[in-house]
Amino acid sequence: MRKLKNRELNRLSIEEFKKADKLPLTVVLDNVRSLNNVGSVFRTSDALKVEQILLCGITATPPHNDIHKTALGAEDAVEWIYEEDTLLAIQKLKEEGYTVCSIEQVENSISLPDFKVEVGKKYALILGNEVKGVQQKVVNNSDVCIEIPQFGTKHSFNVSVTAGIVLWEMFRKIVG
Description:
The protein has helices at residues 14-19, 35-47, 65-71, 74-77, 86-95, 136-140, 159-175, and strands at 23-30, 50-56, 79-83, 98-103, 110-111, 122-128, 144-147. The chain is α/β, with parallel strands linked by helices.
């Protein structure tokens, strides 16, 4: 087997990406402090044609070298908005018809494999701070909380890994 060269992958240009149909998904980063994690979420969001990313609270915004280091230019393709207050951001999303889903370990959470996606619905996926997770007040204002099953000694995944797992699963469920 031969590795494909970049030109053989037929990737979209930034202009083509901006015009392309997107998944009805918005990623909300709630006080994510690592710029490398932010960049990784941009790159994953680009790969899966996510509609937009909301960067909230202390979450850094492009342009920044440490975001670019892991985003590799995806920060120029994926639409993003900065919102100081995550709670205000999700209230706006709800007004726009999004189902707000916190990715968090809470009582009565839905396991990611069991989460049912409804065709035609728009989803906002909230990913939280590397230490504290999604703020409780944001969890309280979410429509649903989704949890990734885990079986080891650690209580959580890195936020960029969580983004990859959840976005891939949502992509798979939406696209079929």
